[in-house]
Design the sequence.
């Protein structure tokens, strides 16, 4: 029994383009070809695709997935055990975040004031104001800083949570492009960089392409920013910087 690329895309919830890409880089080469040269996938190919998608969901870049799956000493059951452990850890983290959000919702509905610690449980180890003193010292006299303070002064905890989720989603999309081997100066990466810039402009302060380029350089120059982005995916700070620069060049003409 074999399946066409369209059928497999439908089974797995991925695009045909993704399957073609996996084939091109040797990550998932279909076992068969039809007489017309079309890709045909076996049950074993589907098992491998399942493993690929599980590791991708867990944040592994494609090159690491290939190394893991092609290890001749690896037992397929070992892959499943490892994925189960990683998924269990992620589920536990999501449960903790969900509990924190539910606690905040319940407190809001009952008119209870949460402690500062309770308000920011949802952010885990992230403190949105950890650099506030330094930011004020470096940019406190700029129009961008004043506009940002005016705009964010009225933000509620729910607003901050929403903005954090939206910004994280942009970063994850950029990380996925990098992991898929998409060049930083590709249309997809530049479009995501432009979305990044517009998000800053709409949520915090007016961020033109020149200022955005400066931010990109800071993401690489400041080890704290680098660590933040590289925690999402190693190398993301540099990739984001390069995509921002390419996007700025695209708009400079």
Sequence:
């Amino acid at each position: 029994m074999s399946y066409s690329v369209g059928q497999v895309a439908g089974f797995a919830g991925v695009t045909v383009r993704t399957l073609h890409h996996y084939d091109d880089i040797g990550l998932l080469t279909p076992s068969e070809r039809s007489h017309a040269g079309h890709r045909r996938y076996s049950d074993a190919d589907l098992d491998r695709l399942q493993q690929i998608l599980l590791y991708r969901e867990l944040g592994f870049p494609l090159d690491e997935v290939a190394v893991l799956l092609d290890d001749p000493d690896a037992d397929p059951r070992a892959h499943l055990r490892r994925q189960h452990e990683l998924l269990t850890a992620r589920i536990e983290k999501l449960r903790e975040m969900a509990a924190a959000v539910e606690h905040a919702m319940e407190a809001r509905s009952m008119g209870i004031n949460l402690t500062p610690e309770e308000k920011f449980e949802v952010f885990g180890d992230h403190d949105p104001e950890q650099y506030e003193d330094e930011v004020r010292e470096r940019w406190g006299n700029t129009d961008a800083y004043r506009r940002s303070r005016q705009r964010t002064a009225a933000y509620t905890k729910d607003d901050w949570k929403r903005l954090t989720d939206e910004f994280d989603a942009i970063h994850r999309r950029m990380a996925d492009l990098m992991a898929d081997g998409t060049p930083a100066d590709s249309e997809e990466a530049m479009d995501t960089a432009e979305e990044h810039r517009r998000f800053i402009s709409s949520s915090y302060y007016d961020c033109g392409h020149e200022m955005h380029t400066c931010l990109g350089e800071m993401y690489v120059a400041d080890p704290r920013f680098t660590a933040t982005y590289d925690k999402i995916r190693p190398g993301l700070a540099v990739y984001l910087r390069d995509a921002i620069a390419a996007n700025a060049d695209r708009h400079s003409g």
